[in-house]
């Protein structure tokens, strides 16, 4: 199984973004229309919601819509207001000893993985792993704020935004964890998600967001795929969310634990998901360093390093199957 | 323009008002299924645009905007649904934004959701609120306003009806020939004629499910329509029109509206005078209730007497507005909708309403026009492969018609040999029972003095229909779906 990560730098929305959009739009369009376009709000509603909740992003949004051809459906999709449901797996951890950072596994269906790492300077310098063309699964900005998301494991949907766009919004407009906390507390999300973030002061936070109840601030360093308690048993069992969280919490209390060791554990069970479950595979591991404004995107056999100061445009292709057949871990 | 009226010079009279609109800089939109109801308005008001779901002019109308991409949408149940669809559409949003803010929106129909959407687009709805309109549109409430205004209604009782026996008790004084109307509804659908228990049982469920209905004595009458506008200086009243009702050549609905005529000697002078007086009284009462702007009244004119009774209130522009707004009095002064708009422009003005009403009542200011609203009358579903375009048609000696020239409304129709056709059903649409095919507007009368359709009208209906070609499609579920989807259109 091939997973690729295409690292692209484009300061302001332009031809590169357009070409990435054009390539993925047929798939996203299918996804966006999966429940019928009638289930999605109209353009004016989407626009007004964006204007109300993320006004700073409007000029970028309008530029992107225009690059995407200016059509109604693409523009509704790009607003990410009440999109179809999406659920990822994921494990994430706030590393709160210097150098501060976030370590996370992104577990998802490889057929739906965009495979793009985007470095932009829309409202400020931001880089991260792209989702829904301008949202982010995880990322870091010039102020050294790093944010990452996991699915919150609750079977509820409501009116609100797809979380990748809210992550983008936080990184485009916030410098510190307290600022970002306030932002996540006010922007409505359409499903349950867990947000973990760290800044250069070493402040960290995990937030449990839901469309149907007030956000909860958790004091945990770790987020997997449940919130305070497990509410969706089948999903929890399928993804081993409790097991993963307990594993990491036990790991973190070990004395003299170093960051590299933790990163290595992310390639091991129970954190790492192999191909046994086709639609739920660890597609990459990311390790952010907020001091350096850098990240490594890692796979068991290779990694790439990127930073806001030195971002290299290239494409990395990884064969996860090959790694599996070598039984590297055993 | 600002809301600060101190710096705005007051408009004095008609010519100032006309100049005001010819130099208007505020974008004004009529948003609707088609632009039929306010045809020609763009020529009186600078910056006036139509935003339509159905493009009747194939892109040749200079001021009609219709989104190119058709988006999936819920089955339209009403014109409100169409308007809400249009307002959410990105092409419409982009179009309105590009033309600048602080615009005004006119609708044939709208609800509170339409109001929200318009507001979020920065548009001010130039009508009383949907809530007020709904309240007044309710036939039971209309009746109460009429009572307050001193406008006679057909002898009636407003009541809940539980059974046929109950009906007999509450309507003893009205006789046994009754008409029952439910609070809301449109022509031909919610009016029930009842003279015995068997007829009652046919509509039992509709009647008994209402908390209040209007039970009227049945009278033998002719329909008429009159349009007016409540302004700060009084109620302006346009001439009384005849109504074409239930002609089987035009509509499948018994009692359904299918056209109007305007001409100097409609009914007799006593009736015309009463209609004008009652409309003024009604308009003045509407103003007291907080309403301003355009409205239409249907009067029932009793056969053999000179009695006239209020039938119905439509608190809005209507399917007859196009007839009113192109008649010669409207061209000489200004069309009625101009006075409506003026009420929503925050513009101080002076106007001698009595003088206008006197002029508009005079024969010399009324020319003779008629419109035929043509629906598909058969119970068939047909796929349209050929359709005549909108514009002016001529009839030759053999009764055949041909397209003569493009125009956007009827004004340039020269003689009785010509007519303006507004096409609604296009190539690729379906005919189904009740589908609006199009509207024919012509000079001269369409009905005889005893309210029969004239041969000339029949020839034109036949001729325009013959320009359509259609085929019966197979038993295709898509067709059924498509027909259900567009079945909600009503022009009035």
Structure, described:
The complex is a heterodimer of chains A (330) and B (492). Chain A is α+β, with helices and mostly antiparallel strands and 330 residues long. Chain A has helices at residues 15-32, 43-53, 58-67, 72-79, 163-173, 177-186, 233-239, 241-252, 259-265, 320-325; strands at 2-9, 91-95, 101-108, 116-121, 125-131, 135-141, 146-151, 193-198, 204-209, 216-218, 222-223, 281-289, 294-298, 303-307, 315-319. Chain A contains 10 helices and 15 strands. In chain A, the strands form 2 sheets. In chain A, strands 10-9-8-7-6-5-4-1-15 form a 9-stranded mixed β-sheet. Mean pLDDT of chain A is 90; it is low at 324-330. With 492 residues, chain B is of the alpha+beta class. Helix content of chain B is 29%, strand content 25%. Chain B has helices at residues 13-22, 79-88, 90-98, 112-120, 130-137, 139-149, 164-170, 197-208, 269-288, 321-326, 328-332, 336-342, 353-361, 455-466, 477-486, and strands at residues 11-12, 28-32, 48-52, 64-65, 104-107, 124-125, 156-159, 178-181, 191-194, 213-217, 221-231, 234-237, 241-245, 257-262, 293-302, 308-314, 349-350, 369-375, 382-386, 391-395, 401-405, 418-423, 430-431, 436-443, 469-471. In chain B, strands 11, 12, 13, 14, 15, 16, 18, 20, 21, 22 and 24 form an 11-stranded antiparallel β-sheet that branches. In chain B, strands 4-3-2-5-6 form a 5-stranded parallel β-sheet. A 4-stranded antiparallel β-sheet of chain B has the order 7-10-8-9, covered by helices on one side. Chain B is globular and about 60 Å long. The A-B interface holds A 36-38, 41-45, 47-48, 70-73, 75-76 and B 69, 71-74, 85, 87-91, 93-94, 117, 120-121.
């Amino acid at each position: 199984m091939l997973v690729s990560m295409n690292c692209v730098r484009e300061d302001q929305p332009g031809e590169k973004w357009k070409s990435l959009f054009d390539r993925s739009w047929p798939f996203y369009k299918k996804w966006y229309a999966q429940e019928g376009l009638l289930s999605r709000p109209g353009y004016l509603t989407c626009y007004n919601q964006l204007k109300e909740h993320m006004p700073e992003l409007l000029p970028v949004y309008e530029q992107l819509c225009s690059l995407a051809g200016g059509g109604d459906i693409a523009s509704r999709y790009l607003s990410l207001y009440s999109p179809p449901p999406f659920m990822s797996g994921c494990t994430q951890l706030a590393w709160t000893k210097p150098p501060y950072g976030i370590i996370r596994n992104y577990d998802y269906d490889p057929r739906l993985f965009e495979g793009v790492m985007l470095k932009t300077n829309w409202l400020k310098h931001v880089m991260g792993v792209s989702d829904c063309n301008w949202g982010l699964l995880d990322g870091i900005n010039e102020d050294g704020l790093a944010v990452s998301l996991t699915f919150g494991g609750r079977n509820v949907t409501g009116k609100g935004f797809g979380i990748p766009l809210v992550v983008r919004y936080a990184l485009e407009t916030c410098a510190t964890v307290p600022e970002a906390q306030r932002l996540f507390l006010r922007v409505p999300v359409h499903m349950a998600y867990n947000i973990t973030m760290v800044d250069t002061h070493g402040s960290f936070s995990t937030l449990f967001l839901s469309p149907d109840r007030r956000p909860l601030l958790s004091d945990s360093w770790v987020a997997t795929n449940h919130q305070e308690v497990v509410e969706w048993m089948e999903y929890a069992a399928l993804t081993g969310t409790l097991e993963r969280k307990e594993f990491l919490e036990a790991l973190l209390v070990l004395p003299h634990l170093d960051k590299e060791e933790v990163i290595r554990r992310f390639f091991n069970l129970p954190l790492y998901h192999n191909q046994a479950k086709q639609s739920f595979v660890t597609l990459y591991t990311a390790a952010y360093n907020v001091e350096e404004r850098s990240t490594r995107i890692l796979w068991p056999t290779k990694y790439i390093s990127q930073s806001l100061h030195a971002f290299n445009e290239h494409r990395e292709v990884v064969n996860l199957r090959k790694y599996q057949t070598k039984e590297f871990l055993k | 323009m600002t809301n600060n009226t101190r710096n705005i010079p007051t408009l004095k009279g008609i010519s100032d008002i006309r100049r005001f609109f010819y130099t208007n800089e505020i974008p004004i939109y009529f948003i609707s299924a088609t632009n039929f109801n306010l045809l020609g308005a763009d020529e009186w008001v600078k910056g006036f645009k139509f935003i339509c779901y159905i493009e009747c002019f194939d892109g040749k109308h200079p001021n009609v905007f219709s989104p190119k991409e058709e988006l999936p949408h819920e089955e339209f149940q009403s014109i409100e649904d169409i308007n809400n669809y249009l307002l959410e559409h990105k092409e419409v949003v982009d179009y309105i934004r590009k033309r600048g803010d602080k615009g005004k929106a006119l609708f044939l129909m709208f609800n509170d959701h339409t109001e929200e959407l318009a507001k979020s687009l920065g548009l001010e709805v130039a009508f009383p609120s949907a809530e007020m309109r709904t309240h007044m549109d309710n036939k039971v409430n209309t009746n109460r306003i009429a009572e307050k205004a001193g406008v006679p209604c057909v002898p009636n009782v407003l009541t809940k009806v539980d059974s046929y026996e109950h009906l007999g008790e509450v309507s003893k004084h009205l006789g046994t020939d009754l008409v029952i109307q439910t609070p809301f509804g449109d022509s031909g659908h919610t009016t029930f004629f009842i003279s015995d228990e068997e007829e009652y049982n046919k509509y039992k469920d509709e009647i008994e499910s209402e908390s209040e209905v209007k039970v009227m004595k049945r009278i033998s009458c002719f329909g008429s329509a009159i349009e007016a506008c409540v302004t700060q200086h009084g109620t302006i009243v346009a001439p009384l029109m005849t109504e074409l009702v239930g002609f089987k050549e035009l509509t499948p609905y018994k009692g359904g509206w299918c056209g109007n005529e305007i001409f100097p000697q409609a009914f007799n002078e006593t009736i015309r005078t009463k209609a004008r007086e009652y409309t003024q009284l009604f308009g003045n009462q509407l103003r007291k209730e907080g309403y301003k702007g355009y409205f239409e009244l249907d009067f029932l004119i009793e056969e053999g007497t000179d009695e006239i009774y209020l039938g119905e209130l439509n608190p809005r522009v209507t399917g007859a507005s196009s007839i009113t707004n192109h008649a010669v009095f409207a061209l000489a002064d200004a069309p009625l909708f101009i006075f409506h708009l003026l009420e929503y422009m925050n513009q101080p003005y002076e106007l001698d309403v009595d003088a206008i009403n006197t002029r508009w009542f005079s024969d010399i200011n009324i020319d003779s026009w008629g419109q035929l609203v043509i629906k598909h009358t058969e119970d068939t579903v047909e796929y349209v492969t050929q359709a005549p375009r909108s514009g002016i048609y001529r009839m030759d000696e053999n009764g055949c018609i041909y397209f003569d020239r493009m125009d956007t409304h009827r004004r340039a129709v020269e003689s009785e040999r010509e007519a303006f056709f507004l096409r609604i059903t296009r190539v690729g649409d379906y005919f189904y029972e009740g589908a609006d095919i199009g509207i024919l507007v012509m000079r001269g009368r369409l009905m005889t003095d005893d309210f029969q359709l004239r041969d000339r009208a029949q020839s034109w209906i036949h001729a325009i229909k013959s320009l359509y070609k259609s085929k019966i499609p197979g038993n295709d579920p898509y067709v059924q779906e498509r027909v259900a989807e567009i079945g909600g259109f009503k022009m009035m």
